[in-house]
Write a structure and sequence with these properties.
Blueprint lengths: L4 E6 L8 E6 H76 L7 H5 L8 H6 L5 H37 L1 H4 L13 E4 L2 E4 L6 E4 L2 E4 L5 E3 L4 E8 L5 E8 L2 E11 L6 E2 L4 E5 L9 E8 L2 E3 L7
Antiparallel strand pairs: 1-2, 3-6, 4-5, 6-13, 7-12, 8-9, 8-11, 9-10, 10-12, 10-13, 13-14
Helix pairs in contact: 1-4
């Protein structure tokens, strides 16, 4: 049987020698198979490339989202820090309120309910699917928020207690000296406690606060009470003493003018005298003392 062939001709585009190749029919079948396989490979490679482009775009999108989330997480941490500082400030305010209500202040350790958190594997179990660093950060923030929630609940309970006491003891609170007595521009020039005597230079104990203000600046009663002394008294010069009941008394020294008399009832905010420099004084100021149960206490602990 005669063998079958097929001819393959190459015709140059710009002219030239015509080339012809004679191939057995079997080679044509092989060529067609190779061409088909090549087409399949090219189609597969094209599909893979398209998939690569899609995955690359998805990865770019995920990277942008992760960067945005990272920035949000950093900002979230800053907000928690600010909330934590605010809560700590509220502890001081809550203690001031408790003190004025006659309740015992609580320690910062009690108010903060301890410092602790979810660590290690426990964090990873709660945040499956996140990388370890992110999971630990999220777990830490979650724990801090839970702690802040407990602290706020504790403070809320404290304020409720203060409110109950205040509601039941309003009259008593009216007689607790809680305001700065000087009405007008002034500053604290000397505090309560140990200091160097301005005249002798020797260590001495200062029973009150010195509030420096221009001569003639009015000062007022810091709470309701009755004037038990108004006159001259040694080193303090012109002095006013007020009995506020419940063991509280206030003393005002170095006044320029006294505007009340012994036996006179006064209300919180009533002007009772003017700042001066009478007695043993180095300049115009008001010497202000608070006594609780016949013992001098720091007025700063009572001034709101």
């Amino acid at each position: 049987m005669a063998r079958e062939y097929f001819d393959v001709m190459f015709i140059p585009e710009g002219g030239g020698e015509l080339r012809r190749y004679r191939l057995p029919r079997l080679s044509r079948t092989l060529l067609i198979g190779v061409a088909a396989a090549l087409i399949v490979v090219l189609l597969g490679a094209g599909a893979a490339y398209l998939r690569y482009l899609q995955v690359s775009q998805e990865n770019d999108l995920l990277y942008c989202e992760n960067e945005a989330l990272r920035r949000e997480l950093v900002g979230f941490g800053g907000e928690i820090d600010r909330l934590d500082e605010t809560v700590r400030g509220h502890i001081r305010l809550a203690n001031d309120a408790r003190l004025l209500a006659g309740l015992s202040p609580f320690s910062a350790e009690v108010a903060l309910l301890g410092i602790g958190g979810v660590e290690g594997a426990a964090v990873l179990e709660k945040h499956v699917g996140l990388s370890n660093p992110v999971a630990r950060t999220v777990g830490l923030y979650h724990d801090r928020l839970e702690r802040l929630d407990r602290q706020l609940a504790f403070q809320e309970g404290s304020f409720v207690e203060v409110n109950q006491v205040v509601s039941a003891s309003k009259e008593k609170l009216d007689h607790i000296p809680t305001i700065d007595p000087v009405v007008g521009p002034h500053y604290f020039s000397s505090g309560f406690g140990a200091r160097r005597d301005p005249f002798t230079g020797q260590p001495a104990f200062h029973n009150g606060l010195d509030l420096s203000a221009p001569r003639g600046t009015p000062f007022c009663a810091p709470a309701d009470g009755r004037v038990i002394y108004a006159g001259r008294q040694g080193r303090l010069g012109n002095v006013i003493k007020i009995d506020h009941r419940n063991g509280f008394q206030t003393i005002f020294g170095h006044a320029d003018r006294l505007l009340v008399e012994k036996g006179q009832d006064v209300r919180r905010g009533d002007v009772i005298g003017e700042v001066g420099s009478t007695g043993r004084s180095t300049g115009s100021h008001l010497h202000y003392e608070i006594h609780k149960d016949d013992r001098a206490v720091n007025p700063r602990n009572y001034i709101l």
